[in-house]
Amino acid sequence: MQKYVSRFHYLTQDLQHKSHLEQVITACESGANWIQYRCFSKTEEQHLDELNRIAEVCDDWGTTLIITDHTSLLSKADIQGVHIEDLSADFTSIRKEIGPDKTLGASANTLDDIKRIAASGAVDYIGCGPFGVTLTKPNDYPILGLEGYKAIMAEMDILRIAIPIIAVGGITAANIDALADMGVHGVAVSAAINKSDNPASAFKEIYRKLH
Ligand SMILES: Cc1ncc(COP(=O)(O)OP(=O)(O)O)c(N)n1
Ligand SMILES: Cc1ncsc1CCOP(=O)(O)O
Ligand SMILES: [Mg+2]
């Protein structure tokens, strides 16, 4: 079953000065239709508690809520899907576990990752990056840049792989037009919004470029 996948994935992050719930409220008030709750600083109990509060806000605003990694929480809160960051995850098993209706996202860095994930037939979209330098999730993967996405999209076209690609990592409003020209389905953004002096305005700037 093909599912709706937003062109703008807003990701919360662990911050000293603003809770995930506060970040979600700002995003919803700014027009978010898709939020990924990406939290690595809480116990399972705290995580579920905050998730339920966030889910209430998202329900009020009609915003799709995705959780990062914690597949087991899918059945415990009013959320619509899970994004798995483990590149080597068994997506066929995860799909069996979560059932057909929940949205399942995966991460990729290369065309080979995308081929493998797409071949599982279990995943609804792929977050592919990093586009640029990011401190949110530092790793050793090579930066793709615009040319990287161009090459990946061209190869996917040849191979007739149609899964939506979401560019991620180091994206700011200044990159949106060029990334859209590369043919990606959408973008995922965290720091450029959350660490901005004015997150609501940073969110809206990106939103306007995508809509
Ligand atoms: C939409 C979306 N895309 C990607 C990620 C996570 O990507 P991640 O696995 O952290 O990136 P690399 O490790 O591959 O650089 C996400 N959470 N959401
Ligand atoms: C989940 C994830 N993986 C690579 S970057 C990132 C988070 C988003 O990056 P940024 O904070 O730079 O927008
Ligand atoms: Mg990863």
UniProtKB/TrEMBL annotation:
The cofactors required by this protein are: Mg(2+)
Annotated Gene Ontology MF terms? magnesium ion binding; thiamine-phosphate diphosphorylase activity
The answer to keyword Acetylation applying to this record is no
Q: How is the cofactor bound?
A: Binds 1 Mg(2+) ion per subunit.
Residue ranges of every copy of the Thiamine phosphate synthase/TenI domain listed in the record? 16-193
Chain residues that bind 2-[(2R,5Z)-2-carboxy-4-methylthiazol-5(2H)-ylidene]ethyl phosphate:
T134, L135, T136, G170
Q: What is this protein called?
A: Thiamine-phosphate synthase
Some GO term, biological process aspect, for this entry: which one? Answer: thiamine biosynthetic process
Q: Which GO terms describe its cellular component?
A: cytoplasm
Stated EC number for the protein is 2.5.1.3
Q: Which organism is it from?
A: Arcticibacter pallidicorallinus
Question: Which of UniProt's keywords are assigned here?
Answer: Magnesium, Metal-binding, Thiamine biosynthesis, Transferase
List the Gene3D superfamilies. Aldolase class I (3.20.20.70)
Q: In which residues is 4-amino-2-methyl-5-(diphosphooxymethyl)pyrimidine bound?
A: S107, K137
- Pfam families the UniProt entry points to: TMP-TENI
Q: CDD domains per the record?
A: TMP_TenI (cd00564)
Protein family (similarity comment): Belongs to the thiamine-phosphate synthase family.
| Residues the entry annotates as binding Mg(2+) | D69
Biological role stated in the UniProt entry? Condenses 4-methyl-5-(beta-hydroxyethyl)thiazole monophosphate (THZ-P) and 2-methyl-4-amino-5-hydroxymethyl pyrimidine pyrophosphate (HMP-PP) to form thiamine monophosphate (TMP).
In the UniProt record, does the keyword Hydrolase occur?
no
Reading the lineage from the top rank, the first entry is Bacteria
Q: In which pathway is this protein known to take part? A: Cofactor biosynthesis; thiamine diphosphate biosynthesis; thiamine phosphate from 4-amino-2-methyl-5-diphosphomethylpyrimidine and 4-methyl-5-(2-phosphoethyl)-thiazole: step 1/1
Catalytic reaction annotation: 2-[(2R,5Z)-2-carboxy-4-methylthiazol-5(2H)-ylidene]ethyl phosphate + 4-amino-2-methyl-5-(diphosphooxymethyl)pyrimidine + 2 H(+) = thiamine phosphate + CO2 + diphosphate; 4-methyl-5-(2-phosphooxyethyl)-thiazole + 4-amino-2-methyl-5-(diphosphooxymethyl)pyrimidine + H(+) = thiamine phosphate + diphosphate; 2-(2-carboxy-4-methylthiazol-5-yl)ethyl phosphate + 4-amino-2-methyl-5-(diphosphooxymethyl)pyrimidine + 2 H(+) = thiamine phosphate + CO2 + diphosphate
Top EC class for this record: transferase
